[in-house]
Specification:
Layout: E1 3-4, E2 12-13, E3 18-19, E4 24-31, E5 36-37, E6 42-52, E7 57-58, E8 63-65, E9 71-74, E10 79-80, E11 85-87, E12 90-91, E13 96-97, E14 102-103, E15 108-109, E16 114-115, E17 120-121, E18 126-127, E19 131-135, E20 138-143, H1 146-169
């Protein structure tokens, strides 16, 4: 993975975390235990500090950045969906930011909340715990049910399992030229999309 020290500040990656080789870490970045950082994620700690706490995931094409002297934080078991942007915000414990959502400076996503895909959370907005936030600008639609929080937690657990799977078996290789007979599948999960549960 491309890791860059900036002005003497070196990114930190816990040995139990998995960071894809195409992710970029610059400067003041701290990746905690059992975290997953997906392909092409960009963590630019060239102004503020970026922190992923234990068990958090930051998926493909996500961006983390912030203003000088700020911390952009994903707390324990935070879940950041594909293509999301976090800028100078805090995502609290067991909360999720959906695909292509944007969370701006000073915003706080309350614990066990979900920010819907494509939502835009404006600067300084704070949502209470267990909120479902939707829209642009995002608004609290309702309180999440126990079942919805359980579903989110199961999805995050699958990324923690994926972290271990990648640490154990991912390897660079050449593609095959044709599909082999009895082609295996990668490990299946019991977690299903919410629309099918």
């Amino acid at each position: 993975m491309p890791v860059y020290r900036l002005e003497g500040v070196t990114p930190v990656v816990d040995p139990t975390a998995y960071v894809h080789p195409t992710a970029v870490l610059i400067g003041d970045v701290i990746i905690g235990p059992h975290c997953y950082v997906g392909p092409n994620a960009s963590l630019r700690g060239d102004f503020g500090r970026l922190i992923l706490k234990e068990g958090a995931n930051l998926q493909d094409n996500c961006v983390m950045h912030g203003f000088p002297d700020t911390d952009t934080v994903v707390e324990v078991d935070g879940h950041i969906g594909h293509g999301a942007i976090l800028h100078g915000c805090r995502v609290e414990r067991n909360a999720m930011v959906g695909m292509n959502a944007v969370v701006m400076d000073g915003a706080v996503i309350g614990e066990e909340s979900i920010v819907a895909a494509n939502a835009f959370v404006k600067a300084g907005f704070e949502c209470p715990p267990r909120s479902l936030m939707v829209g642009s600008p995002a608004k609290v639609l309702r309180t999440l049910s126990d079942d919805e929080v359980k579903w989110k937690s199961e999805g995050t657990h699958e990324y923690q399992v994926l972290t271990r799977r990648c640490l154990a078996s991912i390897e660079l290789c050449e593609p095959l030229t044709e599909v082999e007979a009895d082609r295996p599948r990668v490990s299946a999960s019991e977690v299903k999309p919410k629309y099918r549960s």
